[in-house]
Predict the structure.
Amino acid sequence: MILIVSQHFETSTDQIIEWLILNKKSCVRINENTYIRDVCINNLNGEVELLLFNNIKIDFGSVKSYFYRRGNLKYNLTHIKGASEETKVFLEALQSEWKQLKEYLFCLLEQKNFIGNVSANNINKLKVLSEAERVGLNTPRTFIASNKQQFEREC
């Protein structure tokens, strides 16, 4: 099975899924609208499973390949309500735990055959352009302005 983590309206991912279906390849897509309901990690037998809110179960043992394109794994914490300080502290702790768990899940996925990864999604385009220029590559003209007057003066 191929696990795809992508944004909902991502045309290139839609085309890839169409091709996979045409070639009778099994795949599951997770996007920002897909919440994870349950997570089970068993270090005794190496099993890792996710249960999505649409009742799709993803067994990491059956994931042979992983495709990442601008998506994320989300765990639903919206059911925890309350304005008390204890509730806020509890939610912060859960969010912190989920962040660590999510990083681990992506780490596991990147041990499989994969295209794209979450860490490459957070690159700074300006840093990349500067480095490309530094090593002598041609780069597109870049102009960033914080107000209209600066833009009009330059263009």
Q: What stands out?
A: The mean pLDDT is 87. Residues 35 and 154 are 45 Å apart (CA to CA).
